[in-house]
Amino acid sequence: MSKVLDSIVSLSKRRGFIFPSSDIYGGLAATYDYGPLGVELKRNVTSHWWRAMVNRHDNIEGIDAAILMHPTTWKASGHVDAFNDPMIDDKQSKIRYRADQLIEGHIVRLRSKGKEDEANRVQERLVEALHAEDMSKALYNVIIDEEIRAPDSGAFDWTDVREFNLMFSTHVGAVSSGEDNRIYLRPETAQGIFVNFNNVLDSTRQQIPFGIAQIGKAFRNEIVARQFIFRMREFEQMEMQYFVKPGTQMEHFEAWREKRMQWHQDIGIRASKLRWHEHEKLAHYADAAYDIQYEYPMGWQEVEGIHSRTDYDLARHQEFSGKKMEYFEQESRERFIPYVVETSVGLDRTILMLLSEAYTEEEVGGDKRTVMKFHPAIAPIKAGVFPLVRKDGMPETARKIDSDLRTEFNTFYDEKGSVGKRYRRMDEAGTPLCFTVDGQSLEDQTVTVRDRDSMSQERISMDRCLEYVSNYIRNWKRTD
Ligand code: GAP
């Protein structure tokens, strides 16, 4: 992991953003728990997404489907047969790698050494292998021909490339064997939306084009799970499927691409840290697919996928369930299975993006200051409230300001330690504003307000604190 990512992991644990899951037992690989600050951050992101997608579009409905679904769902969706990753083992270290990622890593290393032509040649081979009939064999051949060594051991001693299904399965009821009662933890939330297409259509007055959105957990038995919360076995997705008339999908696809890129900037991500990545290998059911990538501390990686999925999912559910998944268009008197444009963003990857974007180390008066420069709208705590000292009525006045602010915002009251230390703690939590009650406050009803980013202070009237926070959130712009 990169040094910055290490610092983010350690700050996350120290300040209560993210803990390893079941920490007292040594953790469980690729699963994490969100702490007091992390859960606030997560809630702010989900409500921002919900407002942007559901509340601001009168033609998008929200649902919350069960994690456990009828097992035929996953046969219809293709996940039972084809939700596989091509894996290869280093026989010496016994470490397992995803074959395509191993080759991608090799390409990145070639580029970093300035060997652009060679990198381009291997890239072409990778694309060919990903499209090959026998993808496993083709990927294996690239690894062997290019003499790609294991990143951890340096060995060149590989097994064949084999396919591993990524779904977690379990059994319903008391009998825990056989295929009859096998069910799966959903590997994506999307299928909960597809199987509810008729229910939502029948219970609302929506007409095509319209969307269904949901936020929920998904599970994948990722073989290579690392890089903190980037690739987890239990994670959360925020997905929206937009149902459109066949033939119009590309115009909707382009419109959603634009809106989704803007959303990332609206939560405080600099445009220079975001880019598009067009899929080299389209899934057999897709007619277009782009990822939004963010420049994480470990490099450019996908945070969101935007896919044009044709009528594949609804048609397959129609075939497997025997239930019609059609839409009748009044004007044209036409009946058709709608096409789908999907936007699918990982909540945890969004959190890692926000932590990475916010993490800043600065030198202040010879000391290191660590500050999380979150957009105030998504910062876990909006304001710290302090009495300068614990006497002369200052705590009572500060408590009163705190409780007024709490009617609208999450705040943090702190009276322990020096004010300088209290500011630093709030900087690490990413709290944009701190109000301090001092001796003058009791005379003229003013407080100081300190800005997290510039560290500048001004005096304002005590009764303006609430309004000050609202205006600050609305007008904030990142300055560096
Ligand atoms: N319904 C489409 C779908 O699931 P995907 O590209 O497999 O598409 C969408 O996943 C998003 O879910 C990704 O862009 C990523 O942000 C997130 N995601 C996928 N696998 C993940 C994992 N193992 N850990 C964390 N987030 C993951």
Structural overview:
The chain has 480 residues and is an alpha+beta fold. 36% of the residues lie in helices and 26% in strands. The strands form seven sheets. It has a seven-stranded mixed sheet with strand order 3-9-10-16-13-12-11, with helices on both faces. Strands 20-19-21-22-23 form a five-stranded mixed sheet, sandwiched between helices. It has a three-stranded antiparallel sheet with strand order 5-4-6. A hairpin with a 2-residue loop joins strand 12 (288-296) and strand 13. Helix 5 (99-112) packs antiparallel against helix 6 (116-131). The longest helix has 20 residues, at 36-55. The two termini are 25 Å apart. The protein binds glycyl-adenosine-5'-phosphate. The site of glycyl-adenosine-5'-phosphate has 19 residues, from strand 10, strand 13, strand 16 and helix 12.
Write out key terms for the chains shown.
480 residues; alpha+beta; seven-stranded mixed beta sheet; five-stranded mixed beta sheet; 16 helices; 23 strands; 36% helix; globular; binds glycyl-adenosine-5'-phosphate
Summarize the structure.
The chain contains 16 helices and 23 strands. With 480 residues, it is α+β, with helices and mostly antiparallel strands. The protein has a 7-stranded mixed β-sheet, sandwiched between helices.
Helix amount: 25-40%
Contiguous runs where pLDDT drops below 50 for at least 5 residues: none
Indicate the mean pLDDT.
95
Strand order of the largest sheet: 3-9-10-16-13-12-11
Q: What compounds are bound to the protein? A: glycyl-adenosine-5'-phosphate
Number-wise, the strands total: 23
Note the gap between the termini.
25 Å
**Gross morphology:** globular
Structural category is: alpha+beta
Q: Which band does the percent of strand residues land in?
A: 25-35%
The main sheet comes to: 7 strands, mixed
Number of helices: 16
